[in-house]
DNA sequence: TGGTTTAGAGTTTTT
DNA sequence: CTCTAAACCA
C-alpha cells in the first residue's frame, strides 16, 4: 500500500545494513538471534521500545521457512494493526519471496473474519454477515434501549455500549453479566446486551467484539474446526501481546494448545489500552500459562539517544509490578531534553512552531523530522493555529475521519444492504436518503409491525409496498423497495463500475446537486473520492492473498477492517500531529510532547487511582521513546478548555525525569520565526483558494478574522484569514 | 414531513 | 468554546 513505509518502524535500520532477498541471522544481536532461532516450544519475548522486535519476528519466520521446519501456510503471525501486518508482509516478501503469500500474517480481527466466513454455517450466521463499526453498533444499542423503554438520559448510550463491549472482551455473556450486575446501569447493560445479541444475529451482523467472541465460540463448540487449525498452524506468533484482551488470549491459547509453538512478543511498559479491555496480566503471567516457556529479553535500544532513553527509563521506573528489565543503548548521549513552560496554550503552540522553524534552519532538518504529540484531540486546535500562522505544513493523523462523514456512511449503508438484506441498521439509515417522504412516524410504524410479526424489517417494507398499510405509504415505500431490488440485481464488469452505477442510481448525488450549496458540492466531492478508495482496494488486493473474498463483499470486508491510519501520507514533507495513542509503533527524529500538565497528562480522569496513573505513565513512556534525537516537553501555566481557564501544575512526569537531562524551562521563543502574514486579503464566499498544506478549497464562509474553507477531501477548516497561507486561485472550478 | 433551534457533552480508539 | 443530536415548530 505504501512501499515507502516499509522501514518506518524499523528501529534497527540505523545500525544494520538491510539487504533485501538475503536472510542474515548474523545481522541480529545475540538476544535477537536467540529469539529468532528458538522455534520449538513457547517463547516469551520481552521487547523494549526500539529493540527491533519486528526484525526478530520476520527473521524468525524466514528462519522457519528456510530450514523447512514448516511450510508457509503453516505459519500464523498475528498483529494488532493493518499497518504492522502489511509492514511485516513486505519485509517477509523480501526475506523469503513468494513463499510469504500463503502465510497468515494479519490482524486478530482479520483472522477471525476469515475463520468465521469459512465456518459461518456452524455458528448460525450467514456467510455474508456484515461487520458493524462503533457507530452502527451504537445505533443498534439505541434502538434496543428504545424498544425496552430505557431512558437514554438515565442510561447514557456510551456507558451501556462500553459495558457490553468490556463484557464481550472478557467473554462474559448476557446472563453472566446480569447475575453479577449490582448497579442499575449494570443491570440495564445486561438487559440491553441480551437483546442486542439477538438483534445482531437477526441482522446477520457482528461488531468488532463479536468477531472475537464468535470465533471463540466457533473454536470451543466445533472441535473439528479447532483441530484443523491446531493441526495446520505449527508456529504461531503474536505481536503486541501486552494489548491482548481476554478473548484474544483465549483464542490464541486454543490455537496453540496442541503444538505449543507459541511466541508472544510484547512490552508490559507499553500497555496503553487497558481501558479497552487489554489485560496486561496476559503478558505478565505468560510463564504461568506455559511453565516450559523460554524468555528472551530484547533490552538494547537502537532508536533513541542515551539521554532520551534515560528519561524514559526514569519515568517508567515509578510503576510497580513491571517485568524487570533495563533498556540500554550504545547510542551517544545526544542533546538534553528541552522543557518549555508556556504562559498559555497559545504560547505553547507558538514555541513549538518557532522551534521547528529554528531547527529547520539551524540543523538543516525537513518538516517530516518533526512530530507533535498530545494527550487529547482537543489540544490539536491551538497547535494547528500556531503552525498555520508560521506557515508550517502539517498533517493530523487521526482527527476527522473520512469514513465517518455522513455522505460516505450513506453510500456504505447502501452497499451493506446490497450484500446483506438483513442489515436493519443500514436499511433504516438509507430508507429516507435521499428524501423520499418516508418520515419518522412511518418508520416507527413499520418497525412496530416488524416486531409484532417477528419478521425482518425489509419483509415489512415489502408488505407496505404491496399496499397492506394503505396506498399512501405504499406510494413512498414502493419505489424504495424497487431500488433495492435493482441495486442487488445489477451486474457490472468491474467493482468500480458496479459501485459507481449504484451510487448514481440511489440519487444521493442528485439530491446534493439540487441543493447546490458549497457544502453539498464538498459532499459530492467526497463521494467521488470514495470511488478512489475502491481503486485503492483493487490495487491492495492485487498483491495479497487469494483466500479472501472478492467483489463487493470482499470490498466491504476490507473497508470494515481498514483504518484511517492506513492511508496516512507518510511520503509528504510535513510535520505530523497525533495523539500519543496513535503514535505507538512510530518514531521521529524530533518529538514535542505538548500539554504536560497534571489533569491533562496525566488526564484528570485517570489521575487518582494508581492503575490509571500507571497507564498514563506508560503512555508517557511510549511518547518519550518515539523520539530519536531531540525531545521537547512543553506545558502551559494556564490553559483554557471548554471555555474556562485552568491553572494546572506541571505534569508530575516531568519531575520524574532526572534534572541533569533537562534543559530550559524558561526558553524564550524567538519572535522572528513567525512569518509575515498575508494581511489584508479579502475573501468572498465561493472563491477558490489554495492552501499551502490543505491544497485547493472553496471559501464557504467569511466571519470577521476567520474564513471557513471546504477543502477537497479534507472537509471544512476554520482559518485565520490574515495568517493562513492561502492564495486565491483564478479558475472557477475545483474539479 | 422537514428545517430550525436549543440543550448537553466533550480522554485515549490499533479493529 | 464547538460540535452533535434530540426536541420543536411551521
Protein architecture, described:
With 735 residues, the chain is of the alpha/beta class. It contains 28 helices and 22 strands. The strands form 5 sheets. Strands 11-12-10-13-14-9-17 form a 7-stranded parallel sheet. α14 (306-316) runs antiparallel to α27 (610-624), α15 (345-362) packs across α16 (380-390) and α20 crosses α21. The radius of gyration is 27 Å and the shape is globular. It starts with 29 loop residues before the first helix and ends in a 7-residue tail after the last strand. Residues 1-21, 667-679 and 731-735 have low confidence and may be disordered. The chain binds a DNA duplex (15 and 10 nucleotides) through residues 79-84, 107-110, 112, 131, 133-134, 152, 156, 208-209, 211-212, 240, 243, 272-273, 275-276, 375-378, 381, 398, 432, 435, 437-442, 560-563, 565, 579-582, 584-585, 600, 603-606, 615, 619, 640-644.
What attributes characterize this protein structure?
28 helices; globular; alpha/beta; 735 residues; DNA-binding; disordered C terminus; seven-stranded parallel sheet; six-stranded parallel sheet
Give the gist of this structure.
With 735 residues, this protein is α/β, with parallel strands linked by helices.
Task: Kindly report how far apart the N and C termini lie.
Answer: 26 Å
Shape: globular
Structural class: alpha/beta
Mean pLDDT score, rounded? 86
Number of strands: 22
Poorly predicted ranges: 1-21, 667-679, 731-735
Strand order of the largest sheet: 11-12-10-13-14-9-17
Radius of gyration using CA atoms only? 27 Å
Q: What does the largest sheet look like? A: 7 strands, parallel
Bin the strand percentage: 5-15%
The percent of residues in helical segments reads 40-55%
Query: Number of helical segments?
Result: 28
Amino acid at each position: 500500500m505504501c512501499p515507502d513505509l516499509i522501514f518506518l518502524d524499523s528501529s534497527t535500520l540505523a545500525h544494520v545494513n538491510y539487504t533485501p532477498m538475503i536472510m542474515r541471522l548474523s545481522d541480529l544481536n545475540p538476544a535477537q538471534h536467540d529469539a529468532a532461532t528458538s522455534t520449538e516450544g513457547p517463547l516469551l519475548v520481552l521487547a523494549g521500545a526500539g529493540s527491533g522486535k519486528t526484525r526478530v519476528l520476520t527473521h524468525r519466520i524466514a528462519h522457519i521457512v528456510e530450514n523447512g521446519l514448516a511450510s508457509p501456510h503453516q505459519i500464523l503471525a498475528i498483529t494488532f494493526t493493518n499497518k504492522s501486518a502489511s509492514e511485516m508482509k513486505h519485509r517477509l516478501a523480501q526475506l523469503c519471496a513468494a513463499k510469504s503469500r500463503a502465510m497468515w500474517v494479519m490482524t486478530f480481527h482479520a483472522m477471525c473474519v476469515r475463520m468465521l466466513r469459512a465456518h459461518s454455517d456452524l455458528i448460525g450466521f450467514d456467510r455474508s454477515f456484515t461487520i458493524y463499526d462503533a457507530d452502527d453498533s451504537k445505533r443498534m444499542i439505541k434502538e434496543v434501549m428504545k424498544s425496552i423503554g430505557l431512558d437514554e438520559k438515565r442510561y447514557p448510550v456510551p456507558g451501556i455500549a462500553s459495558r457490553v463491549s468490556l463484557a464481550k472482551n472478557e467473554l462474559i455473556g448476557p446472563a453472566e453479566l446480569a447475575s453479577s450486575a449490582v448497579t442499575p446501569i449494570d443491570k440495564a447493560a445486561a438487559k440491553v446486551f441480551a437483546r442486542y445479541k439477538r438483534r445482531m444475529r437477526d441482522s446477520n451482523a457482528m461488531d468488532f467484539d463479536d468477531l472475537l467472541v464468535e470465533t471463540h465460540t466457533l473454536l470451543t463448540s466445533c472441535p473439528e474446526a479447532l483441530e484443523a487449525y491446531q493441526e495446520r498452524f505449527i508456529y504461531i506468533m503474536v505481536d503486541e501481546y501486552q494489548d491482548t484482551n481476554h478473548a484474544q488470549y483465549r483464542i490464541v491459547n486454543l490455537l496453540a494448545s496442541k503444538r505449543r509453538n507459541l511466541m508472544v512478543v510484547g512490552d508490559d511498559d507499553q500497555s496503553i489500552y487497558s481501558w479497552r479491555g487489554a489485560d496486561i496480566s496476559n503478558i505478565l503471567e505468560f510463564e504461568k500459562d506455559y511453565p516450559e516457556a523460554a524468555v528472551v529479553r530484547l533490552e538494547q535500544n537502537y532508536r533513541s539517544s542515551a539521554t532520551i532513553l534515560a528519561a524514559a527509563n526514569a519515568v517508567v521506573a515509578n510503576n510497580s509490578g513491571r517485568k524487570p528489565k533495563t533498556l540500554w543503548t550504545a547510542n551517544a548521549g545526544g542533546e538534553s531534553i528541552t522543557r518549555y513552560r508556556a504562559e498559555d496554550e497559545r504560547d505553547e503552540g507558538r514555541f513549538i512552531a518557532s522551534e521547528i522553524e529554528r531547527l529547520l534552519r539551524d540543523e538543516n532538518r525537513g518538516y517530516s523530522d518533526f512530530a507533535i504529540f498530545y494527550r487529547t484531540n482537543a489540544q490539536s486546535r491551538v497547535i494547528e493555529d500556531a503552525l498555520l500562522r508560521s506557515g508550517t505544513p502539517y498533517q493530523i493523523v487521526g482527527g476527522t475521519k473520512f469514513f465517518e462523514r455522513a455522505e460516505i456512511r450513506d453510500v456504505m449503508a447502501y452497499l451493506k444492504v446490497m450484500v446483506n438484506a438483513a442489515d436493519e441498521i443500514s436499511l433504516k439509515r438509507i430508507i429516507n436518503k435521499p428524501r423520499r417522504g418516508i418520515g419518522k412516524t412511518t418508520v416507527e410504524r413499520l418497525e412496530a409491525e416488524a416486531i409484532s410479526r417477528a419478521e425482518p424489517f425489509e419483509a415489512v417494507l415489502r408488505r407496505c409496498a404491496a399496499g397492506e398499510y394503505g396506498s399512501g405509504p405504499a406510494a413512498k415505500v414502493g419505489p424504495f423497495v424497487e431500488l433495492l431490488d435493482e441495486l442487488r440485481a445489477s451486474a457490472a464488469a468491474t467493482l468500480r463500475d458496479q459501485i459507481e452505477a449504484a451510487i448514481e442510481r440511489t440519487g444521493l448525488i442528485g439530491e446534493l446537486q439540487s441543493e447546490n450549496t458549497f457544502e453539498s458540492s464538498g459532499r459530492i466531492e467526497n463521494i467521488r473520492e470514495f470511488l478512489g478508495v475502491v481503486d485503492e482496494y483493487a490495487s491492495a488486493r492485487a498483491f495479497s492473498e487469494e483466500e479472501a473474498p472478492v467483489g463487493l463483499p470482499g470490498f466491504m470486508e476490507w473497508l470494515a477492517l481498514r483504518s484511517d491510519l492506513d492511508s496516512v501520507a507518510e511520503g509528504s514533507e510535513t510535520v505530523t500531529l497525533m495523539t500519543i495513542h496513535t503514535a505507538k509503533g512510530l518514531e521521529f527524529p524530533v518529538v514535542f510532547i505538548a500539554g504536560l500538565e497534571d489533569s491533562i497528562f496525566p488526564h484528570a480522569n485517570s489521575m487518582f487511582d494508581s492503575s490509571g496513573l500507571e497507564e498514563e505513565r506508560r503512555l508517557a513512556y511510549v511518547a518519550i521513546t518515539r523520539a530519536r534525537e531531540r525531545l521537547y516537553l512543553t506545558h502551559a501555566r494556564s490553559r483554557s478548555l471548554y471555555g474556562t481557564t485552568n491553572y494546572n501544575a506541571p505534569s508530575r512526569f516531568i519531575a520524574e525525569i532526572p534534572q541533569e537531562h533537562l534543559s530550559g524551562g524558561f526558553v524564550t521563543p524567538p519572535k522572528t520565526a513567525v512569518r509575515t502574514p498575508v494581511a489584508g486579503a479579502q475573501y468572498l464566499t465561493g472563491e477558490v483558494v489554495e492552501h499551502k498544506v490543505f491544497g485547493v478549497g472553496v471559501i464557504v464562509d467569511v466571519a470577521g478574522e476567520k474564513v471557513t474553507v471546504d477543502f477537497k477531501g479534507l472537509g471544512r477548516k476554520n482559518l485565520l484569514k490574515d495568517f493562513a497561507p492561502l492564495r486565491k486561485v483564478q479558475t472557477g472550478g475545483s474539479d
